[in-house]
Amino acid sequence: MGEYLLEVRDLKTYFKVKAGRVRAVDGVSFAIKPGEKVGIVGESGCGKSVTALSLMRLVEQPPGEYAGGSILFDGQDLLELPESAMRKIRGGKIGMIFQDPMTCLNPTMTVGKQIAEGLKIHLKLSDGQAKKRAIALLEQVGIPAAAERANSYPHQFSGGMRQRVMIAIALACNPKLLIADEPTTALDVTVQAQILELINGVCNEFGTAVILITHDLGVVAGMADRVVVMYAGKVVETAPTDELFANPRHPYTLGLLASVPRLDEARESELKTIEGAPPDLLKPPPGCPFMPRCAFARAICRTMPPLDPLAGKATHFKACWVDVTDPKEQAYAEKRRQVRAEAMKAAIKASTEATLQQTS
Amino acid sequence: MGRYIIRRLLQAIPLMILLSIFLFTLIHLMPGGPEGVLFNPRLSAAGRAALRANFGLDDPPWLQYFKWVGRMLVGDFGTSFTTYQPVSGIIAARFPATLELFGFSLFLALIVAIALGMISAVRHATLTDYLVTTLSYFGLSMPIFLLGLLAQDIFGVQLHILPTSGTSTPGYVFDPFNAFLDHFLHLLLPMLVLSITFIAGWSRYMRSSMLDVIKQDYMRTARAKGVPFVRILIQHGLRNALIPLITVVAIDFGAVAGGAAVTEGVFAWPGMGLLFIESLDARDYPVLMAMLVLGAVFVIAFNLIADILYAVMDPRIRYS
Amino acid sequence: MDVPHRLNVTNVPEEEIEPFLDVTPELVQKRRSQGRIIFDRFIRHRAAIAGGIFLIVMFLFCFAGPLFWRIDPDLIPDNVITARFTPPDLAHPFGTDSVARDELARAIAGGKVSLLVALTSMAGAILLGIGIGSFAGFYGGILDNLLMRFTDVFLAVPLYLLLFVLSATFTDGSPASVVILIAIFGWTYAARLVRGEFLALRDREYVLAARTIGAKNLSLMFRHILPNAAGPIIVNATLLVGANVILESIMSFFGFGIKAPNPSWGNMVADGQGYFDRAPWLVFVPALLIFFTVLSFNLVGDGLRDALDPYMTER
């Protein structure tokens, strides 16, 4: 058992396609204590959603496959469980909410029945008991006139309300872990804050651990105890939230944080981006996946760096050979950026000339 | 929802009116005009004159139209050329046989089509799926009369196990149980042939509808709740997949008035369809026109039923 | 672990700056043309290809066939009594019928008629459908309402019944009359389809853009919107041919469509039906021809639908 509720060790989830195997999750490891809130951040396609689905074993088996690693939950390896046992865990011990509440609810079933469904399956409640508890849950997530609304259909609710219903469904059987996959991305900004507060409040009250998946650093800053940064199917850095924001050590994390516009920046300054594009997960380059876009890259980066703790900070891990705080490394990186900018300009010029030649 | 039904009913009325005008115009366009359609060709000149007055054929067209509609509304569809009986009585007598044939076929086809569609969708891209899809292609590409002929040949002539026409074996008097059995055996072939025609189209539709539903996010939510597979399939999958299917079924069924003629024709099943073919051969226009009108009413009625069923089954329509 | 975490930069010479792996932006990308993409997707459908090949063979059979198989389909030989009902052999690959006419020649002639009827009636129906549907969908409002009520009336009448009555009354058994009849009632689905497409497409940006440079309505409808609506129309047209073959064969079978002396697959089945015990091939030849032709049209139509659907993922 140990002190961890969930231990993911070297999880690998691949997808078989005609051209080969897409390595969506390629050796991800992290751990969560009971009641802890962990945020997983990364850009689209970095594998965070697939990680979440893998935890629940919801990945479609063909074309997906669990190619390696283990997921230890409450002492059991979820990847080894038979399907019937896994079904008891889904909804019973681990709850999940998804991004788009409109499409995630059955349009032909009342909201109350959808909540009660899980209760009847996992807690073996009778119809009457389940209904009562469903109404209580609706109240808890902040739906007014819960008793009447339980008989309404999903399309009669607004986006924020629907997400509350999803939370009620996920937490109905009092699971130990809640996985929230981009729960606020599809909502208005004002509603986002409400939903996050709700998740925070309810999970604090019941001691539910939370995995919050998002590409929005702001969301993570407000809610998570710890942050896991993913890139191209791998974990590149993980640290307690405050520590990560104050002291980022991976070039990718640096890029992420720098790309968020700040209120105290000069208005006319350019928006900072991370040059380049995410790698092809079908044929990932060997070594560190961020290398093609990394200003700090060195020859050694052709070998994948291990996820190791920083010297002196046992809770802060990074997967990088370079110490980005070293001013010499920073100078090197700056020089590389300049070289690249020059090369880009030259290439665009050449390409434009070539196109003009073609058309004339 | 009551308002929705009333609205649809009201929309159907102008359609009926337009339709009646259409058919009325048709009667007048037929060779010989309305006289050719309404009057028995063997009438004497004096008889004709009397009927002209009776039908008001010297009245202006719009008056004729209203009188015609008026007559139909009270069930007067004229008199058959061949049997001199009131048309409404003739049709009513043939109605039960058609109802029997189509009722059972519909029931069987619905069950089989839903089952096949579901299996095909769940076992998508496997051998079962390909088999079912291929069979439904075959069914769709085969005209009913061919299927009927084939069935008659194989089961009736070659294997000699099923009767191929009529509703009962002529010349025998059975006790009730055997009479029932005999009747049932006669029903079997036409019912199966008709069902196959329905199943071919409906199972494809069900499969495609089910495939769409399976891809939906709420199926994933149900799995994330730990709901067992069969329950997901039925409560979440079928409930949503059936909605578009049921409307197609209702509309198809309404359009089937034509199919009745073909199937009953091939199997000599004494229903309204066979009546239609017999009347065609005899150029018995009063019967033909009456069947056209009734057929159209049938189609419109079932379209209405389709819309209502859709509203009943889909809460998004019901409460919007 | 002997790989150091930090590198001593002062010892790294300038030239060893690690080059970025992707510098050239792809401003000019090679893309397959729209047509090529559609063609590739169609090819992937083996069944549709099989259907397409069969149709090509069938068309050659019916239209180029008479050049190779010279026997006259209407020829009744002198030795009728002995020559009739011969089973398929080298002289008569499809056998002979009740009056000793060569069945293969009849199949070719009948195929020509059946296919031509199906195709022309499809063309007529599609043209009518585009005509009505485009105006209804483009202008909307009252015109749309009127046209759609009009369409509804045609849709409400039971098709077979009306066709039977009309063909019994009006036609003379010639293919032309059958074509007109089928076309008159076949346009309804296409009209609905076209209307739907036009309704959806007329508010797209490119239409607006064309309007701003002064394009007139007719030009908008037929040069801008119609080509984009072409996909579903083509699919519908293909499937419609198959449906028309069936329709014509049913009508001819019951004696209301194409009548003797014009051969068609439908009335050939009717002719052969009475002699089924003696000469089953008289039914099977036209029946199988109908079946495989319609099947091929359905397969090709479905293949086109899959190829033209922009939202389809791998199924």
Describe this structure in words.
The complex is a heterotrimer of chains A (360), B (320) and C (315). With 360 residues, chain A is an alpha/beta fold. The N and C termini of chain A lie far apart (72 Å). Chain A contains twelve helices and twelve strands. In chain A, a hairpin with a 2-residue loop joins strand 11 and strand 12. In chain B, 79% of the residues lie in helices and 0% in strands. The mean pLDDT of chain B is 83. With 315 residues, chain C is an all-alpha fold. Chain C is 67% helix and 0% strand. Chain C contains eleven helices and no strands. In chain C, helix 5 runs antiparallel to helix 7 (175-201) and helix 10 packs antiparallel against helix 11 (281-308). The longest helix of chain C has 37 residues, at 103-139.
Apparent shape of chain A = globular
Low-confidence stretches of chain C: 1-15, 23-30, 311-315
Q: What does the radius of gyration of chain A come to? A: 23 Å
What is the count of DSSP helices of chain C, taking H or I runs of 4+ residues? Answer: 11
Sheet having the most strands of chain A: 8 strands, mixed
Average pLDDT level of chain A: 88
β-strand amount of chain C: under 5%
The ordered string of helix (H) and strand (E) elements of chain A is EEEHEEHEHHHHHEHEHEEHHEEH
Oligomer: heterotrimer
The gross shape of chain C turns out to be: elongated
Largest interface: B-C, 44 and 39 residues
User: Which residues of chain A sit in consecutive blocks of at least 5 with pLDDT less than 50?
Assistant: none
Percentage of residues assigned to helices of chain C: 55-70%
CA-CA gap between termini of chain C: 49 Å
Q: Helix- and strand-based class of chain A?
A: alpha/beta
Number-wise, the strands of chain C total: 0
Helical residue percent band of chain A:
25-40%
Q: Average pLDDT of chain C, to the nearest integer?
A: 78
Main β-sheet description of chain C: none
Ends apart, CA distance between termini of chain A:
72 Å
Number of strands of chain A: 12
Which descriptors would you attach to this protein?
heterotrimer, A: about 350 residues, alpha/beta, eight-stranded mixed sheet, four-stranded antiparallel sheet, 12 helices, 12 strands, globular, C: about 325 residues, mainly alpha, about 65% helix, about 0% strand
